């Protein structure tokens, strides 16, 4: 992925400010590398690589409740 090989890796398709609000500008066309990389707890288990990437940016690892958004309907 272009932009992800530096000392502070950041994919060039990532828009926004890390730690505030970001989004993928090519989400529907993202590479298999991104499709296969799961954020911690998105499927109920941690991802050490996700935690390490967040720590590299000065962010705390995600916690199990990270995917509990108050305005989203609960899955049946």
Question: How would the blueprint of this fold be written?
Answer:
Blueprint: E1 14-17, E2 21-24, H1 32-36, H2 48-56
Antiparallel strand pairs: 1-2
Describe the structure.
The chain is of the alpha+beta class and 76 residues long. It has 2 helices and 2 strands; from the N terminus they run ββαα. The protein has helices at 32-36, 48-56; strands at residues 14-17, 21-24. Strands 1-2 form a two-stranded antiparallel ribbon. The longest helix is centred in the C-terminal third of the chain and has 9 residues, at 48-56.
Brief account:
The chain has 2 helices and 2 strands.
Give the beta-strand count.
Answer: 2
Distance between the termini: 36 Å
What topology, given as strand order, has the largest sheet?
Answer: 1-2
Contiguous low-pLDDT stretches (5 residues minimum) are: none
Q: Please give the share of residues in helix.
A: 10-25%
pLDDT average, as an integer?
80
Radius of gyration: 13 Å
* Rough outline: globular
Strand content: 5-15%
**How many strands, which pairing sense, and closed or not: the largest β-sheet?**
2 strands, antiparallel
Count of DSSP H/I helices: 2
Number of domains: 2
Give the ordered list of helices and strands.
EEHH
Structural class: alpha+beta
């Amino acid at each position: 992925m272009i932009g992800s090989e530096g000392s502070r890796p950041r994919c060039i398709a990532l828009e926004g400010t890390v730690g505030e609000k970001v989004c993928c500008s090519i989400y529907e066309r993202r590479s298999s590398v991104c499709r296969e990389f799961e954020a911690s707890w998105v499927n109920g288990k941690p991802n050490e690589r996700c935690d390490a990437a967040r720590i590299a940016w000065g962010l705390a690892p995600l916690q199990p409740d990270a995917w509990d958004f108050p305005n989203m309907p609960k899955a049946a």
